[in-house]
Amino acid sequence: MGHFVTSKRDFRARAHSNPLNDAEFLVPEDPCSVDWSPFIPDIGTRSIDFVDLGCGYGGLLCELSTAFPEKYMLGMEIRDRVASYCVTKLEELRRLNNGKYRNIGFIRTNCMKFLPFYFPRSSVEKFFICFPDPHFKKKKHRQRLVSLRFLSEAAYCLQPGGMIYIVTDVEELFHWMNHQFAQHPLFLKKEQHVVMQQDVLLPYLLNHTDEAQRMKRRGQETQYWNVFQRK
Ligand SMILES: C[S@@+](CC[C@H](N)C(=O)[O-])C[C@H]1O[C@@H](n2cnc3c(N)ncnc32)[C@H](O)[C@@H]1O
Question: Cβ atoms within 10 A of the Cβ of 18, count?
Fold first, then answer.
């Protein structure tokens, strides 16, 4: 990878950003006319395959970029300084690794609200939701990313047969998210043993997010996960 100087310490950010605030995000008017090439230089006229929702510091997509060079991927992050870190880190990776990391990009936005403004109907292959903010207090549950409304928007953007992956270390949130999916008419839960046998992405999701790396450093192991398929 070469010598890497961008440090998370230079991009300190508040722990949370309220996704219910109507902060001024500029969103595309028409998802079909978005030119992604300023963010994802090699994309041409192709559409985005994988989307990391609440990507944090972007570690997962940086790993996936070289593992799946034929896929185009976007990380969405609401916190300004964290999204800036992703962009700076990506510029540095591109500079140090000629011709690589040109299939991924990062933007700052609120993915709880604006998905259909970014992705045309039936275009996305996979959404990743890794370690979403748990918002433990009951009155803050409205701020949780996965809700019935959110799933309808994600289902609209997903290809038929497309997938949503969820990973968390918070058991209560895991049950909550499973419950939202179970109530939604457009998703089916994949059998975990089938995913473990067949899905080449799963090991990346369980081992290469920034949060999974942090858990590993602390000796924590339990990650709850599931994969849901759009009908
Ligand atoms: C605990 S971090 C997990 C980061 C990363 N997915 C990982 O697994 O390492 C959750 C991230 O989601 C971001 N986030 C929360 N709500 C969001 C929203 N509505 N839109 C975009 N990003 C959001 C937070 O700012 C934070 O960086």
Answer: 11
